[in-house]
Amino acid sequence: MAWWGWLIVGSALLGAEMFVIDAQFYLVFLGIAALVVGLAALAGLASPEWAQWLAFAVLSVISMLGFRRRLYGMLRGSTGSIDERVTPGERIRLPAALAPGETSRIDYRGTSWNARNTGDAAIAPGDEAEIVAIDRLTLKVRRAP
Q1: With contact defined as beta carbons under 8 Å apart, do 145 and 123 qualify?
Q2: CA distance linking residue 4 with residue 32, whole number of Å
Q3: Residue 71 dihedral angles phi and psi, to the nearest 5°
Q4: Torsion over CA of 122, 127, 128 and 133, rounded to 10 degrees?
Q5: Total-model pTM
Q6: In this structure, what DSSP letter does residue 55 have?
Q7: pLDDT digits over 32-62, tens only?
Q8: Which of 91, 114, 94 is nearest to 104 (CA)?
Q9: What is d(CA 13, CA 1) in angstroms, rounded to the nearest whole number?
Q10: Which letter does DSSP use for residue 98 in this model?
Q11: Does the domain made of 83-143 have the CATH classification 2.40.50.140?
């Protein structure tokens, strides 16, 4: 394929990922690989068509396997942790009974959370509980002293 063909394909793949569909960052690496092959051909590194396709495939696979997960995680923010909004030691009022080791749903600061009783005593409905720790989206609580 001519160098300009690779550049058009690469630009189309990048544009499709950015503006048309969310392919979870796969098309970005295909587009970059196509652009690299096109720029190499433009720079005078002429090679047969089979070698261009092989370079495109190898660059695509290596870049996807090596960088996609890290870059996608950084750009999309897939941590699932909200520790800065919750302060251990705060007290909350539970709407339902919660026995030791059990988990239930509660509303806290405008969001629905899982609450797990990590203490030794049951918490009665309407009683206060103290937030002991946060494990992702689960509040670990115990009966307030």
Answers
A1: no
A2: 14
A3: -65, -40
A4: 30
A5: 0.51
A6: H
A7: 999 999 999 999 887 899 999 999 999 999 9
A8: 114
A9: 16
A10: B
A11: yes
Identify the CA nearest to 55 among candidates 41, 42, 66: 41
- Give residue 68's pLDDT: 81
CB of 98 closer than 8 Å to CB of 129: yes
Helices (H) and strands (E) in the chain, counts: 3, 5
Half-sphere exposure of 102 (CA within 13 A, CB side): 14
Sequence-separated (6 or more) residues with CB below 8 Å from residue 71: 25
Residue in the block written with tokens 């068509």? 49
Other beta carbons less than 10 A from residue 57's beta carbon: 13
Q: Which amino acid is at 82?
A: I
Length of the chain (residues): 145
CA distances from residue 19 to 11, 23, 34, 111 in whole angstroms, order as listed: 12, 11, 18, 31
What tokens were used for 94?
């539970």
pLDDT of 20 reads 83
Distance from C-alpha of 9 to C-alpha of 17, rounded to nearest angstrom: 12
Task: Show the tokens assigned to 7.
Answer: 């550049």
Domains of the chain, residue spans:
3-76, 83-143
Residue-wise DSSP of 65-98: HHHHHHHHHHHHT-----GGG--TT-EEE-SS-B
